[in-house]
Design goal:
heterodimer, A: mainly beta, 4-stranded antiparallel β-sheet, globular, B: mainly beta, 7-stranded mixed β-sheet, 11 strands, 0% helix, 52% strand
């Protein structure tokens, strides 16, 4: 099973700051890495697919990069509505797995 | 826009079988381009992939749950279902149904909390 680790676990950020979240896979997964945003009491929403492709309707301040074992989700100019937990997810091999999440709080 | 809605009992007794249904609307479950999956989230914790199914009935399951899980599809009703047997308190979670390309999950239901308790 591929294990995904995320850092940091928690980040408190002021509006308009840049946020960087990393996801590391226990073995190479190519670009089969996806990012989701989950706000309290809501279902997860797809932000980025295949490491760097933005999903339809996602604001341009969200971007992803990486390949192999190391991936990054970047939020440029954070907005208050971006307060959420962010999860990475790998689909390179079964069973699909998710990272533990990074909670982003607004100062 | 595609919508998914989970339904089923919110309370299940230990050792019994959890049964949930996901109804797909504003889209066809019979598309060969997509699979349909279940993911769960224990309260205050992260996401766990349960399994997925194609419209033709081809399934993939998480090995950690495989002996207890069955996912099925009913194309005539545009629904797919989850059964999880011999449940314990550890199976208490919000259960989500979602559409997948076989890789990422692009549309999700709102989720339904299932509590395992006597």
């Amino acid at each position: 099973e591929i294990v995904l680790t995320q850092s940091p676990d928690f980040q408190s950020v002021t509006p308009k700051e840049k946020v960087t979240i990393t996801c590391r896979a226990s073995q190479s997964i190519g670009r089969s890495l996806h990012w989701y945003q989950q706000k309290p009491d809501q279902s997860p929403k797809l932000l980025i697919k295949y490491a760097s492709q933005s999903f339809s309707g996602v604001p341009s301040r969200f971007s992803g990069s990486g390949s192999g074992t190391d991936f990054t989700l970047t939020i440029n100019s954070l907005e208050a509505e971006d307060a959420a937990t962010y999860y990475c997810h790998q689909s390179s091999s079964l069973p699909f797995t998710f990272g533990p999440g990074t909670k982003v709080d607004i100062k | 826009q595609l919508q998914l809605q989970e339904s089923g009992p919110g309370l299940v007794k230990p050792s019994e079988t959890l049964s949930l249904t996901c109804t797909v609307s504003d889209g066809s479950i019979s598309s060969s381009s997509y699979y349909w999956g279940w993911i769960r989230q224990p309260p205050g914790r992260g996401l766990e992939w349960i399994g997925s199914i194609s419209y033709s009935g081809s399934t993939s399951y998480n090995p950690s749950l495989k002996s207890r899980v069955t996912i099925s599809v009913d194309t005539s009703k545009n629904q797919f279902s989850l059964k999880l047997s011999s449940v314990t308190a550890a199976d208490t979670a919000v259960y989500y149904c979602a559409r997948t390309t076989g890789d990422c999950y692009d549309y999700w239901g709102q989720g339904t909390l299932v509590t395992v308790s006597s």
